[in-house]
Amino acid sequence: MLKEIVIAIQSYLKAHQFIIQHRLWKWILIPGIIYALLFAVSMYFFGKSATGVIEYLTEFSGIRNWVQKFENSWLGFLFTLAGVIFWILLMFFYFSLFKYIWLILGSPIFAWLSEKTSAIIEGRDEPFSMQQFLKDMVRGIRLALRNSLWQTVYTVSILILSFIPVIGWATPILALFVECYYYGFSMLDYSCERKKMNASKSMEYVAKHKGLAIGNGLVFYLMHGIIIIGWVLAPAYAVVAATISMHETN
Question: Which of 34, 122, 178, 188 has the maximum number of C-beta atoms within 10 A of its C-beta?
Fold first, then answer.
């Protein structure tokens, strides 16, 4: 799996060179700018919402008063740490929902961009087919909905685990890997569709190549650390990188 993670990470560098060489910028920048604007607004409101949820839960449950009653600095530290971890997990959950909304809205562009990338790599002139385009788009939407359901189940389970001392400290990392896997899954599925894999075959393929999905999703998330530029480039780069990585492993 580690080898495939490395392949997926390296595919982003190749995707950058590929996009420059074949002048695909208009398909990168236009949806990327829309995504960046939506991402900035969403994260602002998500952050306020997550803080509000934590404050409500601590007041409603009486945990805050219970901790203050003991006047124990070590207990206060653990309580604060648990609050930070829970806030991070809520942000992952919120971002997960936002991500799937974007995957659904952006599926027409992502489907076309993946097909265009594959056609260039294979040196074929792929004529535009509205029927295939719509088929890819519908499949992308259905997969996004399915993955969002399963990821929500896992994320809620992780949120519950976050309340367990010590074990809960590792939950943000676990949540990150779940996020990476399912996002990379969505990106890889466009290539699986072109290989005539049905949904079950696609799930089986990605399950056998978890490294490609995790690596693709990991770089996608890391790119969000590059303010504005990373937000603009992350979605489309993930599509192109996933397509390239699939070609390199088959």
Answer: 188
How many CA atoms does the CB half-sphere of 198 hold within 13 Å? 1
Q: What gap in Å lies between CA 14 and CA 229, rounded to an integer?
A: 18
Q: Terminus-to-terminus CA distance in the chain, angstroms?
A: 15
3-state secondary structure of 224: coil
pLDDT tens digit sequence for 122-138: 877 655 566 666 776 67
146 Cβ contact partners less than 8 Å away, ≥ 6 residues apart = 199
CB distance 214 to 180 below 8 Å: yes
- What are 59-69's pLDDT values in tens digits? 665 555 555 55
* Cα 52 to Cα 46: distance, rounded to the nearest angstrom: 10
- Does the predicted model carry a pTM greater than 0.85? no
**47 Cβ contact list (under 8 Å, min separation 6):** 91
For the chain, the structural domain boundaries read: 2-41+84-248
- Is-contact 187 118, C-beta < 8 A? no
Q: How far apart are CA 194 and CA 135, in angstroms?
A: 11
